[in-house]
Each structure stands twice: as C-alpha cells, then as structure tokens.
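Sanity check

After download, print the first record. It should look like this:
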Amino acid sequence: MESTHLSIHIDRAADEVYAYAADPVNLPAWAAGLGGSIELIKGRWIATSSPMGRVEVVFAPRNTFGVLDHEVTLPSGETVLNPMRVIPDEEGTCEVVFTLRRQPGTTPEDFRRDAGMVEADLATLKGIVERG
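Expected structure tokens:
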C-alpha cells in the first residue's frame, strides 16, 4: 500500500500537543475531515457530520509515547487505520507526523487531495495549540 508521511513542527511541548490532540472532544476544531461534531454515544465516539457520513472513531489508548493512531469506520463498514505520532523535538517543541495510506481504488489525484486536506488539518492543529 502506498503511503506518505505528512508532518508539521509545532512550537509547543509534545505532551501539551498530545493532550490536546488525543482528546476526541477537540477533533472538530482541527480535523475538518471528520466534520464539525463528534459525540460519545453508548461508549463510542461518533462523528455525526463527517463529509463521509456518520463514522466511528476509535483512538489508541492514552500512552506516553505520543501515539495518536486512530481507526475510522466508514458507513460502508470499512475501517481505515490512520497512524499518527507526536514526536518531541527540541525542548518545548515537537513534530506531528500523520501517515496517509492510499486506499484501494483511490486515484492519484484523490490521494493528493487527501494529503492536502491532512496538511490543512495539521496546520489548524498547529495554530490552535501554539495560541494556547
């Protein structure tokens, strides 16, 4: 499977960025691809207004390694793994890396569009956490 690593440097400590990004409540503020709302319904995080339709988002358990992997289950029932990490950099800064995997049937143009959307989401995350 083809993949590309998209990253951004953030002028905040890794633990601060991780704490913000790992909280599902904050997703609508920075992850436009998941829509404008997410709700905890019967113990499951559901993005109710995603451009893909109603999707379930399952996050890796909280950890000290900066792992923000999350699975998105689409309305079709297909589940997509999205590897993501917050990596400490110089003191007080970090890098956030998202691995975008090209799904079967995705055209090169759609893959580039998806990459652009992830880059925009990462830029939004950077803006939010740097403003504090």
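If your output differs, re-run the checksum step. Summary of this record's structure: The first helix runs from residue 14 to 21.
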